Amino acid sequence: MKLVVAIIKPSRLEDVRQALNSLDVHGMTVTEVRGYGRQKGHSEIYRGTEYAVHFLPKLKIEIALEDELVDPAATAISEAAQTGRIGDGKVFVLDLLAITRIRTGETGAAAL
Amino acid sequence: MSMTIVKHPGVAALALLALAAPAGGQEIAPPEAVTAAIDSGDTAWMLVSTLLVILMTIPGLALFYGGLVRAKNILSVLTQVFAGFALIALLWVGYGYSLAFAGPGEGGLSAFIGDFSNVLLGATGPDAVAGSIPELVFVCFQLTFACITSTLIVGGIAERMKFGAVMAFLALWFTFSYLPIAHMVWAEGGLFFTMGALDFAGGTVVHINSGVAALVAAIVLGPRLGYMKEPIAPHNLVFVFIGASLLWVGWFGFNAGSALAANGTAAQAFLNTITAPAAAALAWALAERLTRGHASALGAFSGAVAGLVAITPAAGFAGTAGAIVLGAVAGLVCLWAVVTLKPKLGYDDSLDVFGIHGVGGIVGALGTAIVAAPAMGGFGAADYSIAGQLLTQALAVGVAIVWSGVVTVVALLLVKALFGGLRVSDIRESDGLDLSSHGERAYN
Question: Which fold has domain A2-111?
Answer without folding.
Answer: Alpha-Beta Plaits (3.30.70)
